[in-house]
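Retro notes
What went well: the complex prediction finally ran end to end.
Inputs used:
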Amino acid sequence: MSQTIRVAITGAAGQIGYALLFRIASGAMFGPATRVHLSLLELEAALPALEGVRMELEDCAFPLLDGVSMASDPMKAFEGADWALLVGSVPRKAGMERNDLLRINGGIFTAQGKALAAVAKKTCRVLVVGNPCNTNALIAMANAKGSLPKENFYAMTMLDQNRAIAQLARKAGVPVSQVGRVAIWGNHSSTQYPNFYDAQIGGKPLPEVIRDEAWLQGEFLATIQQRGAAIIKARGASSAASAANAVVDTVRGLTTPTPAGAWVSAAVCSDGSYGIPEGLMFGFPLTSDGKTHTIVKGLTPNEFSKGRIAATLKELVEERDAVKDLMP
Ligand code: NAD
Ligand code: LMR
């Protein structure tokens, strides 16, 4: 038992927070040999509710949980953070698109980017979950410039990858463990592109196993793009347990070496790969050596994929242009 990782989590008294904190404290995120300190950030008004969550964490007697601290000031909550999981923000309601939240939530990420730059460890890695997560991550990254490296910022598309794997496994009639190399390109929005052409089932190219291109291009694609909205319609609230699970999968995927035949999906700062403008937070297939990520290179998107990637890129460029004033 060597180290303690300090994890800052914003919006910790919210739905995702309630499903996430206990998974982290149990060791699911950093493994059974790593202790964790949870540093929880909430709005002042939510601190009494958060105190109840803190009591519940204590009542679990998690052997790996070193401590829990609570604050309403990001300058306190992010102090010394190794990881910052930026969940806190307003979720959309039925009938809204995620980018309708741009002006509502964008401002949160300017202040939090600055606070991360000021007080987090210089090696801190940041995963933005609050929507619209790609552009919120862009805002946080821009406001932390000069202090935290841009490579340390991520926006969450792992939930979309998990959704895609589940639907493809169901269609092929195989366990989810048989589905590999699925990745989400672009925005965590209804323009995202869950690329199935490069996916594999049982090590074989997916299009050779699921011989139904009309389903892949039509129903499958629409199901993944609209899954968040379908859950809001059914539950009356946005996904929470599956989102928390995807946060665990993302951090685990970025802090452990990626197994052969697997990819990790997250939006990262583009290095110009595949013609995506440098500096945009864009979802790519990634691999990890356990310390840093690499964008999977050498793929050759077909015309259909190129069209879908262009559509999601257009939306991200529009989002970026709409929040220029929030980026120094
Ligand atoms: P929620 O409303 O249940 O909880 C959000 C919490 O954030 C609240 O407790 C609120 O008090 C807190 N909060 C608001 N502003 C804050 C601030 N400035 N600092 C600290 N805390 C703040 O919402 P939720 O269901 O937990 O969802 C949170 C966000 O995650 C939403 O934006 C939602 O759309 C997004 N989300 C993203 C994904 C994804 O895949 N990227 C998946 C699910 C949900
Ligand atoms: C999701 O994908 O479930 C979340 O981003 C919530 C939403 O607004 O769709």
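What we learned: The longest strand covers residues 281-288.
What to try next: split runs per interface for comparison.
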